[in-house]
Amino acid sequence: QVQLVESGGGLVQAGGSLRLSCAASGRTYSSYFVGWFRQAPGKEREFAAVISWSGRSTYYADSVKGRFTISRDNAKNTVYLQMNSLKPEDTAVYYCAAAYSLTVPGAREKYDYWGQGTQVTVSS
User: Fold this and answer.
1) Strands 10-13, 118-123: pairing kind
2) Is residue 12 within 8 Å of residue 124, measured between CB atoms?
3) Residue in 5, 19, 113, 97 with CA at minimum distance from that of residue 51
4) pLDDT (tens digit, 9 = 90+) per residue, 99-113?
5) 3-class state of residue 110 by DSSP
6) Other C-beta atoms within 10 Å of 110: how many?
7) CB atoms < 10 A from the CB of 27, how many?
């Protein structure tokens, strides 16, 4: 069992930065892929980024590539999402999720555990 808790959301102006954290409990967390998804009001939850258990492989949605960076510190059981050059369209609730086995990064149904989400609001 893995429990995930996101933090670091908030209100920021366009062009600003935020760093989200996803802290996990569960001694096998380091064996999981961890992804970030986001959901804007009235929209489907969409994939943003994912990192492999080792941290050596990452994959990003085109909408965030070059602006967001995902990383992990397995010693701290934490995955981070550094978000730079934020835009108003990045406004959403951000969720982290863990998958033990993953072949398609953005496949929501493949993720086994989800956090409760953290709100990110980018003002213009």
Assistant:
1) parallel
2) no
3) 97
4) 988 888 899 999 999
5) helix
6) 16
7) 10
16 beta partners: none
Q: Is the pLDDT of residue 7 over 70?
A: yes
Q: Shortest CA distance to 111 belongs to which of 28, 44, 37, 30?
A: 37
Q: For the chain, what percent of residues have pLDDT higher than 70?
A: 99
Under DSSP, is residue 30 helix (H, G, I), strand (E, B) or coil?
helix
pLDDT tens figures, 63-107: 999 999 999 998 999 999 999 999 999 999 999 999 988 888 899
**Token pair 């994939």: residue:** 47
Name the residue type at position 72.
R
Who contacts 29 (Cβ-Cβ below 8 Å, separation ≥6)? Answer: 2, 74, 77, 98
Cα→Cα distances 10→66, 96, 119, Å: 21, 16, 6
Residue 108 CB coordination number (10 Å)? 16
Here the tokens at position 26 are 């569960």
